[in-house]
Amino acid sequence: MSLRNRVALAGGLVVAAALLLAALVLYPSADRDLHDQLDSTLVSTAASSPRFSQALKQKVSQSGDGFPATGVLDIGGTLVQFLPSPVQPGKAELADVTVQDTAVATGSRPAYFSDADYQGRAYRVYTSQFDSSSGSLVRVAKPLSDTLDALHRLELLLVGLVLGGALTAAFAARLLAGRLLRPVGRLTETVEQVTVTQDLTSRADGGLADIGGRDEIGRLARSFSAMMGALDGSVSAQRQLVADASHELRTPLTSITTNLELLAEPGGLADPQAPALVRAALEQSEELKRLVNDLVELARYGRAQVHTEEVRVDLLAQEVVDRAARRSPGLRFAVLPPPDPEDCVMLADPEALARALGNLVDNAAKWSPDGGAVELAVAFAPGRDRICCTVTDQGPGIDEADRPFVFDRFYRATAARARPGSGLGLSIVRQIAETHGGTVAVLPAERGARLRLELPLEAVHQGST
Which residues form the HAMP domain (predicted)? Predict the structure, then answer.
């Protein structure tokens, strides 16, 4: 069953239940009111029975039977029967006389209502004392058919109202559901199209941008469109990464394969160039290892969740610089802490932050001349809600044309292609910065290059735990 039909069925059932509940309350109330009205009419008629007695006496005297008579008198559809004193139990025309009737005639018991069959019809009978002195009874009866017919008509009306209301509500709910669920249908068509074509850009063709409004359906359409856009970007980046990685891996693998094939030739190991070929293969293997490690790190720091804890950035920066100084003894390294380093505490993944600072420092060391200086400055941004780690070197600097691309994966400037490296180090820095809600940028510098990593002290980490 479609969602539209389910909504229609639910709407009809809800209205039917509400009307049925109202009918269950209304019908007993109407039944009680009609019977009370009938009883009130009988009481009023019985109270006015002395008015009829004179007419009854005249009729009986004309017949010669004597007064009072026990016959039933039909007055305007109301049956009236007088039972003279003494009232004794026995047979009577309208209803048998009982002990209770005798007690009512003497005034020892109150008047009462009862039901009786007379000449094939059901009657409501009211039995009361005729007067307080004669010791006689008067019975007043009206047929129940009028009341029962009215109740039967009410039953049919209520049944028709419940069924008609339910059907009308179901029809209206189906029409309304069709209109309300039209955006959901368009969203479903887009999902099915993406499933069949595997084309994540088809969200625009599916018209999701036209599904406006601030309701839940509009929010769902916008969220789905944003999710599709993010997924499309992720898939495109994955494909680009695979293509770039394949291209970068091909060069060292080709070199290693070529050198090994030369060594595998007859007399290859005895060739005077064999040691050089082995060294070249080892160098290419090392470059391949670095490239694979960088790819692993890039994927690692791009994961959806990161571990965070409190980190003293100035102390972490000092550890990074100390390691770099041991690797490059020909350079001078320095850490410039803020005036109040004890306040330099932030929530971050310490391993990731150390990798980001290490890549910035290693990049500066790679481009610095012998005897040059590399500085890592830690400072607070204006407002003291962000912390800035700036690395400055004394190398040749970064060309203006290369600055927008230095943090792209596998991007290597023309001057850097002759140097070892995979082109992933600065890309890893940007990945770590974005994961922590920060940024990384190239700053203008009079000499060398200046790269700044800026992170919030209390960042809302993307997917952090």
Answer: 178-236
> How far apart are the C-alpha atoms of 363 and 331, rounded to whole Å?
13
Nearest-10 crossing angle of helices 3-47, 145-180: 160
- Asked if the structure places residue 264 within a domain, the reply is no
Phi-psi bin for 66: left (phi > 0), alpha (psi -120 to 50), beta?
left
Q: How confident is the model at residue 465 (pLDDT cuts 50, 70, 90)?
A: very low
| Model pLDDT for residues 408-452, shown as the tens digit of each residue | 876 666 555 555 555 677 888 888 888 888 999 999 888 889 999
53 has a pLDDT exceeding 70 = no
Is the same domain home to 112 and 200?
no
Name the token pair of 308.
Answer: 């965070």
Q: Alpha-carbon distance 295 to 299, whole Å?
A: 6
Token pair recorded at residue 30: 């109407």
Q: Are 321 and 437 contained in the same domain?
A: yes
pTM surpassing 0.85? no
Residues 6+ apart with CB under 8 A from 241: 298, 409
Residue with tokens 């009862």: 114
Residue with tokens 């910035």: 360
pLDDT score of 27: 82
**What is the residue range of 51's domain?**
1-180
56 band by pLDDT with thresholds 50, 70 and 90: low
Which helix (H) or strand (E) segment holds residue 315: the answer is helix 313-327
Q: E strands, 245-372, where?
A: 309-312, 332-336, 345-348
DSSP code at position 142 = E
* Average pLDDT over the chain, rounded to an integer: 77
